[in-house]
Amino acid sequence: MPRTSSRTSSDRPLEFFFDRSLGKISAHRLRDAGHTVHLIADFYSDDAQQIGDSEWIAEGCRRGWALLTKDRRIRYRTDELAALTDGHLFCLADGNATLDIIAQRFLEAMPAIHRAAHRTNVGFWHVHPGGRINKMWP
Question: Where do the VapC45 PIN like domain residues begin and end (predicted)?
Fold first, then answer.
């Protein structure tokens, strides 16, 4: 099966793959704002409880989706970063954010997330308050 690139063209809308740690309520809030969000639970049984981060990251990259999480430890794990080939992972800088804050942070950062995904081939980004993102890897 040919591999699709996660680097999106400017005419293709960006789609998101939501890590289970972000909660379904946050995903629904992004959907309500007009974004296409795919839940990890839609692809793996038992809400992906037995699925390692490297597996869902690789799946999202194969599909060309931007990955959203609050698990900052992924940045330090070689297996997870190796799975992030040709993809973009956006992680909340504040991993203890409430469901309301999770959605708000990602919504504030959407313009920057779209720019990063369209301009770079791969990256792990921290999402900060006020819509600011910064590239943490590579």
Answer: 15-88
Q: Please count the structural domains in the chain.
A: 1
- Angle at the Cα of 79 from the Cα atoms of 121 and 128, rounded to 5 degrees: 55
Determine, yes or no, domain membership for 6. no
Q: Report the distance separating Cα 80 and Cα 99, nearest Å.
A: 24
Examine residue 5 and state whether it is found in any structural domain, yes or no: no
Q: pTM higher than 0.85 for the full model? A: yes
Segment 59-102, tens digit of pLDDT: 999 999 999 999 999 999 999 999 998 899 999 999 888 888 99
In a domain, 46, yes or no: yes
Q: List the domain range (segments joined by +) for residue 131.
A: 15-137
